[in-house]
Design brief:
alpha/beta, FAD/NAD(P)-binding domain, Guanine Nucleotide Dissociation Inhibitor, domain 2, 3 domains, seven-stranded mixed beta sheet, binds flavin-adenine dinucleotide
């Protein structure tokens, strides 16, 4: 059932899930489908977390926030943990472009085409390209390798910043990783994309999340929106429920889809964990945040096909720190051609979303006046950047709005507007949470690997398995 905002929750649950990001929703769906009593609580007024959208002008303008591209694995994940209908709506984006001072490349983002580009355009010997891909394929999460991305690229392509750029830049955009992050995180995510290219959801995020909501309700998951959890209750050193608006709701298990740091240090409290666990949690670094500019075109506007996903930069080289700079020199344009993206909505207009990774503190420290000024500068520079591809775009625009890390923080509650959860060390804290505090689990963007649409959804599935094993010890056996 879908609780109304004013409804009180009076029953107990097997599992309470805090947050309806893709990880929280996927776990809820699996557990509900397997017969457990599940309550999904979301602080926002709609499901999806970062998998979200907003409408303007009576829905004729629709803007997707994080539907830019995910790996092919999402088809299998949706078929297995959601339904065939959702999986069948996933389609490939064939036209990915890179335009920067070092190169101009058009690709379908597959291993075959990338290999061809590396060999023919970048002059890398075939044997090196094959050795690089073989090395990535052999990387194992359990290897405990200390190799960084910087060392990985120096090993195979010494001194070739341009090669590093084409291999690394899309992944930096996809999960905020830098040259100093562990190479294993890059290897897993890049290989996932390279297996068959980049995919999207035909119909848009709104269409997808509504289908997921229907499936959750069909599987008897109870949902409450605008329900911000303030506290996770601990009884006899076990998680035993949550507090919303001062009211307790009991459960055998709590799964948090909120940020791992806010879960441990905020909703539970330091006193319930060992000192060493708290020390490690405090050392977990948050990932970077995002800025976006949303541009909706007039009804009668028409543009040529300029690509689906365009990685642009005016910066001379690849530099993951410069990608975060307030003075933006690099941005990704996602172009949503309505007849392809939203065939079910004949009113939908062309939308273009520009995304940039950025630092929360750069925006947070601005005065209200400077904040507005910087937003306007970002909008103006984004339009100028787009004019290189579409010279008369300015006259075709009807709606232009921008979001900053402060917007991200407001709508998702992620500390410092972190778009991709935490750095690598967050994974250990997340995975060991239930060992520290029985009955408390975490699923959601952590450790780079578990972020993104596919990573988050799969992590939800992994944690639902762990929860079922735990519930068995508590006498729940619906499976
Ligand atoms: C600008 C941008 C672009 C992106 N582009 C892509 C892309 O192209 N491809 C891709 O694969 N990934 C992309 N991502 C990343 C991807 O969207 C996320 O990694 C993924 O959706 C995160 O899912 P999650 O399960 O971790 O939860 P989140 O999406 O983080 O959701 C967590 C939910 O928990 C709720 N919550 C938090 N605290 C509480 C509380 N106390 N009580 C109740 N509810 C609470 C929040 O409101 C939120 O709804 C992008 C992200 C951003 C920001």
């Amino acid at each position: 059932m879908l609780y109304k905002i004013r409804d009180e929750i009076t029953k107990d649950y097997d599992v309470i899930i805090i947050g309806s990001g893709l990880a929280g929703m996927t776990a809820a769906n699996i557990l509900g489908r397997n017969g457990h009593q599940v309550l999904l609580l979301e602080s926002h007024n709609k499901l999806g977390g970062f998998a979200t959208w907003f409408y303007r002008e009576d829905r004729s303008h629709v803007f997707d926030i994080s539907l830019h591209g995910f790996p092919v694995g999402m088809i299998k994940t949706c078929r297995k943990y959601w339904n065939k209908d959702i999986a069948d709506s996933i389609v490939q984006l064939k036209d990915v472009r890179f335009v920067n001072p070092q190169f101009n490349v058009q690709t379908d983002f597959t291993k075959e085409h990338y290999s061809k580009v590396l060999i023919e355009q970048f002059g890398i010997p075939q044997t090196t390209v094959s050795a690089f891909f073989d090395y990535l394929a052999s990387m194992n999460f359990y290897d405990n390798s200390q190799l960084t991305n910087r060392e990985l690229f120096e090993k195979f392509f010494p001194g070739r910043n341009d090669v590093t750029r084409i291999l690394m830049e899309p992944i930096t955009y996809a999960n905020g990783s830098t040259l100093d992050d562990p190479a294993i995180t890059y290897g897993i995510v890049f290989s996932n994309f390279m297996s068959k290219g980049v995919y999207t959801f035909k119909g848009g995020t709104d269409y997808l999340i509504n289908k997921m909501k229907d499936e959750l309700l069909k599987n008897n998951v109870d949902i409450k929106l605008q329900a911000k959890v303030d506290k996770i209750i601990v009884t006899n050193h076990e998680a035993s429920g949550v507090v919303i608006n001062g009211k307790a709701v009991k459960s055998k298990v709590v799964l948090s889809n909120a940020n791992i740091r806010s879960t441990v240090l905020g909703m539970v409290g330091e006193e319930h964990f060992s000192a060493s666990f708290i020390e490690k949690t405090k050392a977990v670094r948050l990932n970077s945040s995002s800025c976006q500019v949303y541009m909706g075109l007039k009804k009668e506007a028409s543009i040529p096909h300029i690509g689906d996903l365009i990685f642009t930069s005016t910066f001379p080289t690849y530099d993951s720190n410069r990608l975060l700079d307030l003075k933006v020199s690099s941005r990704t344009f996602s172009v949503y051609y309505p007849h392809e993206t939203r065939p079910q909505n004949p009113e939908a207009r062309i939308a273009i979303v520009s995304s940039t990774n950025c630092n929360y503190d750069d925006w947070k420290k601005l005065s209200a006046e400077d904040y507005e000024k910087e937003k306007q500068i970002m909008i103006e520079e984004t339009i100028q950047g787009l004019e290189k591809f579409l010279p008369d775009i300015r006259d075709q625009l009807e709606i232009v709005e921008a979001a900053t890390p402060l917007t991200v923080e407001k709508y998702t509650l992620h500390p410092k507007g972190s778009s991709f959860g935490t750095k690598f060390e967050g994974l250990e804290i997340s995975m060991n949470l239930h060992k520290e505090l029985p009955g408390l689990f975490h699923a959601g963007s952590v450790g780079i690997i578990m972020s993104g649409w596919l990573g988050a959804a799969n992590y939800g599935a992994i944690q639902s398995n762990a929860i079922e094993s735990y519930l068995l010890t508590k006498g729940n056996n619906h499976v």
